[in-house]
Amino acid sequence: MAIKKVGVVGCGIMGGGIAQVCAQSGYEVTISEINDDLLNKGMKVIKGNLAKSVEKGKLSKEEEAAIVGRLKGTTKIEDFGDRDLVIEAAVENMGLKKKIFADLDRVCAPGAIMATNTSCLCVTEIAMATKRPDKVLGMHFFNPVPVMKLLEIVTTIVSSQETFNTAKSFGQSLGKVVVIAKDTPAFIANRIAVPMFIEAMKVYEEGLATKEDIDNAMVYGYNHPMGPLALADLVGLDTLLYVYDSMYQEFKDPKWAPPLLLKRMVTAGHLGRKSGKGFYDYTKK
Ligand code: CAA
User: Fold this and answer.
1) Does any ligand 1 atom lie closer than 6 A to the CB of residue 219?
2) CATH 3.40.640.10 fits 5-182, yes or no
3) Please, are residues 173 and 25 in contact by the beta-carbon 8 Å criterion?
4) Which residue lies with its CA nearest to atom 53 of ligand 1?
5) In the chain, domain spans
6) Nearest CA to ligand 1 atom 10
7) Which of 262, 259, 214, 254 is nearest to 236 (CA)?
8) Would you say the CB of residue 143 lies under 6 angstroms from ligand 1?
9) What is the pTM of this model?
């Protein structure tokens, strides 16, 4: 099956990035949010990214207009009725995701594929909220989506080979490097990276080094583009807490337990760049 029309549920950091990349790759995209304010905010970010590319001479004004023309915002799930593929990028909450998938199942054409961008939740459980679990899989993008080349496609014991083949071709058409992961907690990349984030937070929590030195150690010692604490702020501390909590719940191994400091920061509303404050302060230029 060839994908032509794409839907994206959620116009936050990830959903907006996914919609932008799809529209840039020539797909017609419908993107939804729960209200007009969030939709307008998300669309503004996408348009701002495209305008920056024009300023840098990476896109022409005509290409920018064509990409924007392929993006349509909505607050109604019914508008996904004609989509070939819908990618869900709502917050990491199983109850919410199951409701979204049940609703999509009701409105989407029988052949449509549905994917979740979850970074930690069980894809099989999400698939079973629909009457088409063979057409559901994980498509896990990385932040910032327009820049990061990786796409993890998460297959389940009920997803079909045909669904996987279509998702893989689609991912490659976006210019992504596709890796195949089984439906296990945090898949491949996060399963390997999470212990590093947790240790970085513990080293900071225990007062063993400053946040700058922790980040510099990984930037200059391991050539990472940014240190783990700065990256945690970029991804969002609430998102990381969901990931660690769900890994801890699944494995029941203290190795995956979220650091106390992370819990306290999220409780205090220190969510990283999106709230202006995380390990670093983003309120001052
Ligand atoms: N959206 C779109 N484009 C962006 C962007 C964003 N949010 N942030 C940066 N860019 C683009 C810039 O426009 C720039 O593009 P050009 O090369 O075309 O000019 C390019 O990225 C480089 O940006 P900068 O020069 O501003 O800054 P930089 O060189 O320091 O790179 C970075 C910034 C791309 C974020 C880089 O630091 C990086 O790669 N960091 C690591 C990111 C990472 O590891 N992401 C994975 C997070 S984990 C995850 O997402 C999975 C999960 O489940 C939680």
Assistant:
1) no
2) no
3) yes
4) 119
5) 5-182, 190-274
6) 147
7) 262
8) yes
9) 0.94
Check if 147 has its Cβ closer than 6 Å to any atom of ligand 1.
yes
Print burial letters for 209-234: b (CB count within 10 Å at least 16), e (below 16). eebeebbebbeeeeeeeebbbbbbbe
Residue owning the nearest CA to atom 36 of ligand 1: 225
Q: Own/partner pairs for 246-255, CB < 8 Å, 24+ apart?
A: 246/92, 246/120, 246/121, 246/185, 247/120, 247/185, 247/186, 247/194, 250/122, 250/185, 251/185, 255/195
Does the 190-274 domain belong in CATH 1.10.1040.10?
yes
Q: Residue 139: what pLDDT?
A: 98
Residue closest to 21 by CA, chosen among 151, 132, 120, 126: 151
Over residues 131-188, the pLDDT tens digits come to 999 999 999 999 999 999 999 999 999 999 999 999 999 999 999 999 999 999 999 9
Active site residues: 119, 140, 152, 190
Can you tell me whether residue 210 is helix, strand or coil? coil
Q: Is 119 a pocket residue for ligand 1 (Cβ < 6 Å)?
A: yes
